[in-house]
Amino acid sequence: MFESMIASSLTIAALGAGLVAGVYFAFSAFIMRSFDLLGPARATDAMNAINDVILRSWFMVLFFGSTLLYAGLAAVAVFDPDLAGRWLLFTAGLIYVVGMFGCTAVFNVPLNNRLARVGSDESARVATWKHYLVHWTRWNHLRGVCSLATLVMSIHYLANYA
Fold first, then answer.
1. Rounded to whole angstroms, how far apart are CA atoms 150 and 9?
2. How many domains does the chain have?
């Protein structure tokens, strides 16, 4: 019974991680470069619009829900010494919570907030956008890789231990 709860929770968490990884991939692969082609002012407006909308979207359910599931699964792995594959499950949870969620909170959100505060001064918008594009995208790559790695580890766990 307990193992089936873990398998069900991990399946749901893995689906969330996969969807989150896809969003991050899209931003890293083409969205940010497309915004940059619009020029700093329009790119800033577009990214600020996305940042406003995403906070009231289903993405937040995936973002927080999968993070909570992985945190819970990692805790179960630490405290259940008889759980098969426990260190794989723990590692998947740790990578997701620290690498995806932590990176977002520590790096991407502050950059989003800085972009939201930029005024209408053209030189400030240009400088802020250039900094934002490089640094936000770099951290977004890391979030995407962590989400994808977690998904792969979750599939491996489900195939071998569930």
1. 14
2. 1
